[in-house]
């Protein structure tokens, strides 16, 4: 590596690397359940990596490791110091470091999923970190949530409304949610899921597969290239 | 002289280099009941500045000087060797393995960010010399030089971040009045200037030859213990 053509870690440099998919949404809406479901559905056909951003240490990462849906070493947990949205939006350095460490250790990968810590309706991923993003709501937060909007609901590439199995119990009207979401999302897709009943979240997995295919078409086959020092060292040790 | 505006960018807590997730031992001190309010926070910060703060300020100043002396005409292997030696000086002054790990993580992230903000041959050499990530003050000094800062400014940035990160963490963890805590920081301002001054005074003229043994090596056993204890906390919010 010469001093002059050294990579500048430009996160926006997309050619020849995995699609980075952010999964955000309020606390407990089913983000980790969705990550597990995607690993179940996509694991057999794609090379995956997962980064979690727990509020408290490694709860989500531990859940995924126990679920046995992905090689535990392909999950890295990032700590966010009380500010989950900072780590995915304003200061993405630790998350990028984790993503690139996975790519360096296990690459080439097809898809790296970054789960945000549960947060509020304004938390979205920086484009420097996630190429595409899914925002996960659940019906138990009330059918008013899509109407309240916020950047997560309005701008995510895909809005997932999870736990439809609970709708009758909490009196949530899915038609209202669907109509309100469509009104603020300008034609971008919305999918209703019950990951409890469909453990592979198949409709979402299909959407992600389309995204990965389109990404590869546009940016070429992912290939392995040394990204940064941490990973080099991690690999060597 | 130096680059005043660049110094502001370098020391700003909004610099996207991962610093927001480190509490500098405050989270563990809060957990143990050693820091419960603004009174003991003030003592914690003063102690931190007088020990770890001063040492990191001196290391940052040394790194800034070394980076500024980087001459593309020199043999790159010499540069790599000098950076490794300076980083080893930082290691020698950091007793706790947990703290070394945290310092390297922060240094790696700062290097990643600063290489995009202020690309330079010195930063490239440093990245090559310490691929797992240099100690944070070493990266900070090198970044400062690349941004046009003087060793004194780099030292000031190091001293400043050694107390502002922990102060912010305490505000979040204890729900302290943020203005009261910033008053504590304002009260520390003269001590920050003094630390930067002392850091530079310790450099001497041997630093250019890579002889840094005269840099201060103040230890803070309580901070070391806090850093180690933090790792055992299953409910931690901060990396360190
Ligand atoms: N009834 C029902 N429960 C679900 C569904 N999906 C997830 N859950 C449950 O909801 C709870 C929270 O799910 P998680 O996947 O941990 O949610 P999360 O968004 O990752 O939560 P945080 O990371 O803590 O913000 C768990 O107890 C899941 O089993 C669903 O479709 N229906
Ligand atoms: Mg989760």
Automatic annotation (TrEMBL), chain A:
<dbReference type="InterPro" id="IPR004400">
    <property type="entry name" value="UreG"/>
</dbReference>
<dbReference type="GO" id="GO:0005737">
    <property type="term" value="C:cytoplasm"/>
</dbReference>
<dbReference type="GO" id="GO:0016151">
    <property type="term" value="F:nickel cation binding"/>
</dbReference>
<feature type="domain" description="CobW/HypB/UreG nucleotide-binding">
    <location>
        <begin position="21"/>
        <end position="191"/>
    </location>
</feature>
<dbReference type="GO" id="GO:0043419">
    <property type="term" value="P:urea catabolic process"/>
</dbReference>
<keyword id="KW-0547">Nucleotide-binding</keyword>
<dbReference type="InterPro" id="IPR027417">
    <property type="entry name" value="P-loop_NTPase"/>
</dbReference>
<dbReference type="GO" id="GO:0005525">
    <property type="term" value="F:GTP binding"/>
</dbReference>
<keyword id="KW-0963">Cytoplasm</keyword>
<feature type="binding site">
    <location>
        <begin position="25"/>
        <end position="32"/>
    </location>
    <ligand>
        <name>GTP</name>
    </ligand>
</feature>
<comment type="subunit">
    <text>Homodimer. UreD, UreF and UreG form a complex that acts as a GTP-hydrolysis-dependent molecular chaperone, activating the urease apoprotein by helping to assemble the nickel containing metallocenter of UreC. The UreE protein probably delivers the nickel.</text>
</comment>
<dbReference type="InterPro" id="IPR003495">
    <property type="entry name" value="CobW/HypB/UreG_nucleotide-bd"/>
</dbReference>
<comment type="similarity">
    <text>Belongs to the SIMIBI class G3E GTPase family. UreG subfamily.</text>
</comment>
<dbReference type="Pfam" id="PF02492">
    <property type="entry name" value="cobW"/>
</dbReference>
<keyword id="KW-0143">Chaperone</keyword>
<comment type="function">
    <text>Facilitates the functional incorporation of the urease nickel metallocenter. This process requires GTP hydrolysis, probably effectuated by UreG.</text>
</comment>
<protein>
    <recommendedName>
        <fullName>Urease accessory protein UreG</fullName>
    </recommendedName>
</protein>
<keyword id="KW-0342">GTP-binding</keyword>
<dbReference type="GO" id="GO:0003924">
    <property type="term" value="F:GTPase activity"/>
</dbReference>
<keyword id="KW-0996">Nickel insertion</keyword>
UniProtKB/TrEMBL annotation, chain B:
<comment type="similarity">
    <text>Belongs to the UreF family.</text>
</comment>
<dbReference type="Pfam" id="PF01730">
    <property type="entry name" value="UreF"/>
</dbReference>
<dbReference type="InterPro" id="IPR038277">
    <property type="entry name" value="UreF_sf"/>
</dbReference>
<dbReference type="GO" id="GO:0016151">
    <property type="term" value="F:nickel cation binding"/>
</dbReference>
<keyword id="KW-0143">Chaperone</keyword>
<comment type="function">
    <text>Required for maturation of urease via the functional incorporation of the urease nickel metallocenter.</text>
</comment>
<keyword id="KW-0996">Nickel insertion</keyword>
<keyword id="KW-0963">Cytoplasm</keyword>
<dbReference type="InterPro" id="IPR002639">
    <property type="entry name" value="UreF"/>
</dbReference>
<protein>
    <recommendedName>
        <fullName>Urease accessory protein UreF</fullName>
    </recommendedName>
</protein>
<dbReference type="GO" id="GO:0005737">
    <property type="term" value="C:cytoplasm"/>
</dbReference>
<comment type="subunit">
    <text>UreD, UreF and UreG form a complex that acts as a GTP-hydrolysis-dependent molecular chaperone, activating the urease apoprotein by helping to assemble the nickel containing metallocenter of UreC. The UreE protein probably delivers the nickel.</text>
</comment>
């Amino acid at each position: 590596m010469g001093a002059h053509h050294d990579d500048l870690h430009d996160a926006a440099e997309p050619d020849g690397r995995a699609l980075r998919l952010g999964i955000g949404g309020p606390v407990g809406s089913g983000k980790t359940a969705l990550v597990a479901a995607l690993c179940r559905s996509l694991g057999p056909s794609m090379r995956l990596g997962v980064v979690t951003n727990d509020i408290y240490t490694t709860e989500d990462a531990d859940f995924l490791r126990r679920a046995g849906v992905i090689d535990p070493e392909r999950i890295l947990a990032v700590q966010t110091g009380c500010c989950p949205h900072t780590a995915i939006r304003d200061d993405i350095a630790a998350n990028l470091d984790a993503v690139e460490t996975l790519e360096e250790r296990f690459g080439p990968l097809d898809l790296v999923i970054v789960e945000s810590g549960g947060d509020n309706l304004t938390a979205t991923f920086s484009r420097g970190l996630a190429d595409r993003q899914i925002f996960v709501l659940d019906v138990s937060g009330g059918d008013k949530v899509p109407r309240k909007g916020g950047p997560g609901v309005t701008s995510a590439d895909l809005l997932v409304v999870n736990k439809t199995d609970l709708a009758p119990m909490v009196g949530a009207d899915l038609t209202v949610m669907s109509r309100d979401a469509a009104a603020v999302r300008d034609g971008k897709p919305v999918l209703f899921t019950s990951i409890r009943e469909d453990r592979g979240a198949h409709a979402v997995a299909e959407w992600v597969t389309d995204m990965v295919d389109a990404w590869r078409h546009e940016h070429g086959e992912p290939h392995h290239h040394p990204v940064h020092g941490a990973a080099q060292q991690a690999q060597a040790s | 002289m130096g680059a005043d505006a660049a110094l502001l960018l370098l020391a700003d807590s909004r610099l996207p280099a991962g610093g927001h997730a480190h509490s500098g031992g405050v989270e563990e001190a809060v957990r143990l009941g050693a820091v419960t309010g603004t009174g003991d926070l003030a003592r914690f910060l003063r102690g931190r500045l007088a020990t770890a703060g001063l040492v990191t300020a001196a290391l940052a100043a040394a790194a800034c000087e070394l980076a500024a002396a980087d001459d593309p005409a020199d043999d790159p292997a010499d540069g790599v060797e000098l950076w490794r030696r300076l980083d080893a000086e930082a290691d020698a002054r950091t007793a706790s393995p947990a703290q070394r790990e945290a310092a390297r993580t922060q240094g790696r992230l700062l290097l990643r960010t600063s290489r995009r903000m202020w690309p330079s041959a010195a930063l490239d050499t440093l990245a090559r010399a310490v691929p797992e990530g240099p100690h944070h003050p070493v990266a900070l000094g090198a970044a400062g030089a690349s941004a046009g800062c003087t060793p004194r400014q780099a030292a000031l940035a190091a001293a400043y971040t050694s107390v502002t990160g922990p102060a912010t963490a305490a505000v979040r963890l204890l729900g302290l009045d943020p203005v009261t805590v910033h008053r504590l920081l304002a009260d520390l301002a003269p001590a920050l200037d003094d630390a930067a001054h002392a850091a530079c005074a310790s450099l001497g003229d041997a630093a250019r030859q890579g002889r840094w043994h005269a840099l201060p090596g103040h230890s803070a056993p309580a901070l070391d213990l806090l850093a180690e204890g933090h790792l055992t906390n299953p409910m931690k919010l901060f990396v360190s």
